[in-house]
Design goal:
Layout: E1 6-14, H1 19-30, E2 35-41, E3 46-52, H2 58-67, E4 71-72
The structure holds copper (II) ion.
Length: 73
């Protein structure tokens, strides 16, 4: 049986100005294979993401954020 390791990371995302931006980032990150959960906090400019290690990594998550037009830090 395969053991999945779930990693949780919180990063800052610049460029979000409203709830629409928040949803775009959330959807983009949740679409990344291996991502279990994404929560975006507009006020704190924070993205909290839970993903399966080995299936994806923070670099891919950040790339997905950039793809929809925001700047992960
Ligand atoms: Cu917006």
């Amino acid at each position: 049986m395969e053991v999945e390791t779930i990693t949780q990371e919180t990063i800052k995302v610049e460029g979000m100005s409203c709830g629409h931006c928040e949803m775009r980032v959330k959807k983009a990150v949740e679409a990344v294979e291996g991502v279990r959960k994404a929560e975006v906090n507009l006020q704190n400019k924070q993205l909290t993401v839970e993903f399966e290690e080995g299936k994806t990594n923070l670099k891919k998550v950040k790339a997905a954020v950039r793809e929809v037009g925001y700047e992960p830090i």
